[in-house]
Amino acid sequence: LVCKDRIVIRKVYNEGFALNKAENHPKLVKTVSVGTLSSIAVYSLLIWKCSACMCEKLAAALVLAGGFSNTYERLKKGRVVDYFSFKTKWKKFNRLTFNLGDFYIFLGGFILMIRTIMKKSLMFLLL
């Protein structure tokens, strides 16, 4: 345990999706991972080409980096190693374990979500 008993470091092999869903179907997991990464790559290229907003470019780069990291590990080793967990009062949340790629995906998605909300709010105010 680290950080005042809030962060737990442990090694968890994830052979499926979140919480090892579909772990008995490795070909499906790899196919979906590659397909999702491909979609993210196309989306990222569009953002880099069409958007002037550095926020959106940073967010796309983070999501792409996290997705690439997880997909590469899944293709190379057949599993993703997760190693960060958080100790909370919610038992179900304590079971979740993450890796750095997951944090990149989450952070990039969060930035894109905030940026989208801000854009819509601004457009609403201008109308």
Count of discrete alpha- or pi-helical segments spanning 4 or more residues: 4
Strand order, biggest sheet? 1-2-3
Give the helix proportion (percent range): 55-70%
Structural class, from secondary structure content?
Answer: alpha+beta
Shape: globular
The string of secondary-structure elements, in order, is: EHHEHEH
Overall pLDDT level: 90
Strand elements, count: 3
Extract low-pLDDT stretches. Answer: none
Q: Give the termini separation.
A: 51 Å
Features:
127 residues, three-stranded antiparallel β-sheet, 3 strands, alpha+beta
Describe it for me?
The protein has 127 residues and is of the alpha+beta class. It is 63% helix and 13% strand. The chain contains 4 helices and 3 strands. A 3-stranded antiparallel β-sheet has the order 1-2-3. α1 runs antiparallel to α2 (54-77) and α2 runs antiparallel to α4 (100-126). The radius of gyration is 17 Å and the shape is globular. The mean pLDDT is 90.
What topology emerges from the helices and strands here?
Layout: E1 7-14, H1 26-50, H2 54-77, E2 80-86, H3 91-94, E3 97-98, H4 100-126
Antiparallel strand pairs: 1-2, 2-3
In a few lines, what is going on in this structure?
The chain has 127 residues and is an alpha+beta fold. The protein has helices at residues 26-50, 54-77, 91-94, 100-126; strands at residues 7-14, 80-86, 97-98.
